[in-house]
Amino acid sequence: MSKTKIINEELTNDGAPTKREQQLAVDLQLISLLRECPDILHRHPELLAELDVPHHSGGAVSLIEKQVAVLREKVKTQDNHLRELMNVARDNERLATSRHNLALHLFAARDHDEVISIVLDALSRELSADYAVIKLFSDDKEKIQQSAGLFVDVNDEALVAFKTMLAHKNTVCGRSTDEQKTYLFADDADDIASVAVIPLVAGANLGLIGLGASDAERFSTSMGTEFLSQIGDLISASLAVHLEK
């Protein structure tokens, strides 16, 4: 670069500081601060992960370089762990809000039909279920005929497939037996790769909620069931009130 060009760059913007002058001012300020706080890296070792410190030692890796590399990896791991915790916290907050909203809507429901509508809409939306069904147990033949698909015979032998989860009030996620899928989802059973089953129990066995997804990982065995069990309790309590009327 010619001398004339350098002079022209330094005199641009009507006497305003050039980028070079601004950077020099920042550098001088940082140098001054570092001299006033020589122990800054002891008090904040995480800064080493952000700094680019030249250290020439030939072909060998120096101890300082190794320490910095280890520190950077440690900070990276901690950052990833913190992000995971934040994601879990956000998910928990979202689920808590969903549970709260569901409870409010259930309290306002006027009959069991409205409860069913609220539940199916909420579960499909909040849990990304491709299929959602509710089966309510009854020994009233007329009710079963009038609401085929919703009310089912409590003495149906097919319910033996759900005997254990109903007895222990266990919500189950993951793969289900062919008998369970067919009973819950009928003609759609072949399209479902993962299932969540929520027993509805309030003093007595009221029924079952079945959630299905074409994604095998959507309702996996590793998925926590506490949230599903809690909303199952809410739904059971609401249904128990309206079914007694």
Side by side, the strands of the main sheet go 2-1-5-4-3
Domain tally: 3
From the N-terminal CA to the C-terminal CA, the straight-line distance is 92 Å
Strand content: 5-15%
- Major sheet summary line: 5 strands, mixed
Q: Summarize model confidence as the mean pLDDT.
A: 80
Q: Provide the CATH top-level class of the largest domain.
A: Alpha Beta
CATH superfamily of the largest domain: GAF domain
Helix content: 40-55%
Q: Compute the gyration radius: what is it?
A: 32 Å
Q: In terms of structural class, how would the helical and strand content be classed?
A: alpha+beta
- CATH fold-level label of the largest domain: Beta-Lactamase
Task: Give a verbal description of the structure.
By secondary structure, the chain is of the alpha+beta class. It folds into 3 domains: 1-38, no CATH class; 54-108; 111-243, GAF domain (Beta-Lactamase, 2-Layer Sandwich). 53% of the residues lie in helices and 13% in strands. It has 9 helices and 5 strands, in the order αααααβαβαβαββα. The protein has helices at 3-10, 19-36, 40-43, 63-108, 112-126, 141-146, 163-168, 178-185, 226-243, and strands at 131-138, 151-153, 172-174, 194-202, 204-213. Strands 2-1-5-4-3 form a 5-stranded mixed sheet, sandwiched between helices. Strand 4 (194-202) and strand 5 (204-213) form a beta hairpin. Helix 4 (63-108) packs antiparallel against helix 5 (112-126) and helix 4 packs parallel to helix 9. The chain starts with a helix and ends with a helix. The model is unreliable at 1-11 (pLDDT under 50).
